[in-house]
Design the sequence.
């Protein structure tokens, strides 16, 4: 499939039009007089900060939410709202960030779930052979390298997204909406997905591409639609799309530099990792030095063992072999409690599942890891909890109406700040951040980067795991790259380039000449 794309025909009549859409919730105006149109075969990038109205807009497209006012027109027929059935009948299909697939079924069964071809008369049994035959050309169309009878459990995240796209094609979609499709993908698999988008476009299928990775929007989109505070902040045509212009539409101003200048020299080794083996790749030892006052980026392809290494260093999972030293002293970790006691903290990959208790308040989440420090006479003190939370709110600019609200009500960026806040109150020595800006808008990303730099300047050793190449190169003082469970190379700033990171990630030798 070719990545080169021709611009969508600007003269083609739109088949889908939203006019003056308004939707409010108690105390929140989610969409305010919002209008846009969709033409066949165009790729539209939707950008906006968390809370700008993107999620509500997608729910309007899908018939999940009815607008308070406005009209939705499909093929010349105007309606005040869509039902889910009308959205599907109009050719609108979704590939959500949280994929809706069944691991106990094969690919074909997932594509046709609820719409299975049947045979056997009154027996009404699923015609598995026909189902797989119907899915095979869909997989071929998007360049999938797996068969219809492949068990879903064996597929990578990128392959699972391809299954969702095949599902959309199976219902003859005219518009495929991709919600943060690359948030968990490394560079090579992201390129494959962008190729698929180009293929959909070539077939006359419109694509709405929602992403916080603005360089991907810049590559893929024919047009960018920006939301700010529920309103249309502006539209950019293909020749106008740049990173800076998108940021300015999203936040209403130019964005300052993401991070301060990197420290010229790292401090002494804070954490020494020697011969550590994890369950992900039990035969591959990891050797790594993490210096005081540096941000060490850890890159690699999905499955390279980065998250497993982080979990071992935090005591979540046992090390199968190897040794650790902290400040030159041997360190034995048998639990997360021991890691916390030594000042090693982990901001996990999935903040909602393992970083926060979503039904608990901001205050409770911040105090939870260190309740004795917020207690008097063995009783948790609400006053002490509140004082600590207010300090962290001021330090990190956690934006919430009250510190007593449940963390599930916060945006992704503010949730991530709460995860950080609970550890920062405990004087970290080593901070491990696994995909720290996944699903976070560009403004909040810049705040997280500045916080990481402040930590490093304060002498904290920061290990940042990221699949975002731009982030790894732009934020790190050094970059360590993993390949199949081991460190395949360490890059210093003079050798930073996407090419070098990718070469090391696939087990090859990096070039000595950095990209300009």
Sequence:
């Amino acid at each position: 499939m070719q990545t080169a794309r021709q611009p969508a025909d600007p003269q083609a009549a739109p088949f889908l039009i939203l006019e003056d859409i308004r939707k409010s919730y108690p105390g929140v105006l989610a969409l305010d007089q919002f209008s846009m149109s969709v033409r066949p075969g165009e790729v539209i990038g939707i950008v906006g900060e968390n809370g700008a109205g993107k999620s509500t807009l997608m729910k309007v497209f899908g018939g999940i939410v009815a607008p308070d006012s406005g009209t939705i027109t499909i093929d010349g027929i105007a309606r005040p709202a869509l039902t889910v059935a009308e959205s599907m009948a109009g050719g609108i299909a979704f590939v959500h960030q949280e994929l809706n697939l069944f691991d106990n079924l094969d690919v074909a069964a997932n594509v046709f779930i609820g719409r299975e071809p049947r045979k056997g008369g009154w027996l009404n049994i699923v015609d598995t052979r026909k189902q797989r035959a119907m899915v095979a050309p869909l997989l071929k169309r998007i360049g999938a390298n797996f068969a219809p009878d492949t068990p879903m459990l064996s597929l990578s995240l990128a392959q699972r997204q391809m299954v969702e796209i095949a599902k959309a094609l199976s219902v003859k979609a005219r518009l495929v909406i991709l919600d943060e499709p690359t948030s968990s993908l490394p560079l090579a698999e992201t390129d494959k997905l962008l190729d698929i988008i180009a293929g959909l476009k070539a077939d006359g299928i419109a694509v709405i591409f929602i992403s916080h990775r603005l360089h991907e929007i810049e590559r893929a989109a024919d047009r960018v639609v920006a939301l700010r505070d529920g309103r249309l902040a502006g539209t950019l045509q293909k020749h106008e799309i740049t990173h800076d212009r998108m940021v300015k539409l999203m936040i209403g101003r130019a964005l300052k530099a993401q991070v301060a200048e990197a420290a010229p020299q790292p401090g002494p080794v804070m954490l020494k990792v020697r011969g550590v083996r994890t369950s992900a790749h039990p035969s591959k030892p990891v050797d790594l030095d993490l210096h005081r006052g540096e941000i060490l980026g850890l890159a690699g392809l999905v499955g390279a063992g980065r998250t497993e290494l982080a979990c071992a260093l935090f005591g979540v999972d046992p090390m199968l072999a190897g040794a650790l030293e902290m400040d030159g002293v041997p360190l034995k970790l048998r639990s997360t409690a021991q890691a916390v006691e030594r000042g090693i903290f982990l901001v996990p990959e999935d903040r909602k599942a393992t970083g926060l208790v979503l039904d608990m308040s901001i205050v409770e989440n911040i105090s939870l890891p260190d309740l004795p420090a917020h207690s008097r006479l063995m009783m948790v003190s609400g006053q002490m909890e509140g004082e600590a939370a207010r300090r962290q709110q001021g330090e990190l600019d956690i934006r919430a109406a009250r510190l007593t609200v449940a963390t599930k009500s916060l945006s992704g960026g503010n949730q991530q700040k709460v995860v950080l806040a609970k550890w920062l109150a405990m004087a970290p020595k080593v901070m491990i951040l696994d995909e720290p800006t996944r699903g976070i808008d560009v403004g909040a990303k810049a705040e997280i980067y500045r916080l990481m730099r402040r930590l490093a300047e304060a002498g904290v050793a920061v290990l940042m795991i990221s699949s975002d190449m731009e982030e790894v190169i732009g934020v790190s003082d050094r970059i360590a790259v993993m390949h199949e469970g081991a460190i395949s190379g360490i890059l210093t700033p003079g050798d930073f380039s996407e090419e070098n990171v990718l070469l090391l990630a696939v087990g090859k030798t990096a070039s000595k000449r950095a990209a300009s």
